[in-house]
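From the methods appendix. Each design record in this collection lists the tokenized structure first, followed by the designed amino acid sequence. Records were kept in a plain field format so they could be parsed without special tools. The example shown here is representative of the layout used throughout.

RECORD:
FOLD TOKENS (305 positions):
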């Protein structure tokens, strides 16, 4: 009877070890039993307590991990980044009240490519170093490529108001567009549905739906000049002026300060003015604010700020 139990214990242990996978191979000679269990085996006196799993141990130095820590971090850079958030001189005990960072902006882009498939591949090859949360095709198909709480690499070097790390607080949406074409209704309708979902889910303010050119006017011009910003603003995503309500601004009105209050980086005023006019004026994208441009700017300033 005791011999049968012993065989059962060995079989059970080897089955458990083999279930751990090939990376932790252990031979029969490497399995050690506690002194109590060994004496029970030789003396024929096994009792029920000696069969506890706690009385069985495996010699730790005989189990070799398949990869060292550095190799695993190389394959999972996020794990390495997260490990850097621990202060090694501190005792760690987790708090129970916390959550993930909530996105507070939506940045709209055009892909400047020729298909959704091309953009997806761009976001999946190591050397591109660029990504977005969503890609929307001309037919309205929506592809999500990152969790909303993940930090995508879509904004690049940019600034809006006092924010300089916009990737950390925003969701990036890429529209399949070569940078020149119009945006089809199916694409815009899918975008509006997505924006409504994001606004409701994360309480994103209306003013915080902006374009890539807004936050990086010296580098970017997307979404292109054909993008229907008024249509979005009418639905509560972004801002637009009232063409019937334009008035001359007062003499004290400073357009540069107004643009800065809206959020534009005015360290390069000409680039910021061009981005503003590509979005709101469209018919004239020069780097000089005309009287009409100032009326539009003043109307936006009064209406939203």
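DESIGN:
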């Amino acid at each position: 009877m005791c011999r049968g139990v012993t065989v059962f214990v060995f079989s059970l242990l080897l089955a458990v070890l083999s279930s751990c996978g090939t990376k932790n191979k252990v031979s029969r000679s490497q399995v050690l039993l506690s002194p109590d269990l060994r004496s029970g085996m030789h003396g024929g006196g096994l009792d029920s307590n000696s069969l506890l799993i706690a009385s069985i141990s495996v010699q730790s130095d005989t189990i070799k991990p398949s990869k060292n820590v550095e190799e695993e971090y190389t394959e999972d850079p996020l794990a390495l980044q997260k490990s850097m958030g621990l202060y090694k001189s501190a005792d760690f005990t987790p708090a129970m009240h916390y959550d993930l960072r909530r996105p507070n902006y939506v940045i709209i882009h055009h892909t400047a490519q020729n298909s959704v498939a091309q953009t997806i591949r761009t976001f999946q090859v190591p050397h591109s170093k660029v990504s977005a949360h969503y890609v929307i095709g001309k037919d309205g198909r929506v592809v999500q490529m990152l969790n909303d709480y993940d930090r995508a690499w879509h904004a690049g070097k940019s600034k809006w108001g006092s924010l300089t790390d916009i990737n950390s607080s925003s969701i990036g949406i890429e529209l399949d567009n070569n940078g020149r074409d119009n945006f089809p209704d199916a694409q815009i309708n899918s975008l509006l549905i997505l924006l409504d979902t994001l606004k409701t889910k994360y309480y994103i303010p209306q003013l915080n739906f902006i374009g890539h050119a807004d936050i990086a006017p010296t580098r970017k011009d997307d979404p292109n000049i054909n993008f229907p910003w008024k249509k979005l603003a009418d639905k509560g995503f972004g801002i637009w002026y009232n063409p019937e309500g334009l008035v001359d601004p007062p003499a004290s009105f400073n357009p540069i300060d107004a643009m800065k209050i809206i959020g534009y980086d005015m360290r390069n005023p000409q680039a910021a003015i061009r981005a503003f006019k590509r979005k709101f004026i469209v018919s004239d994208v020069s780097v000089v604010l005309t009287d009409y441009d100032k009326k539009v700017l003043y109307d936006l300033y009064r209406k939203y700020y």
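APPENDIX NOTE: Residues 2-62 form one domain.
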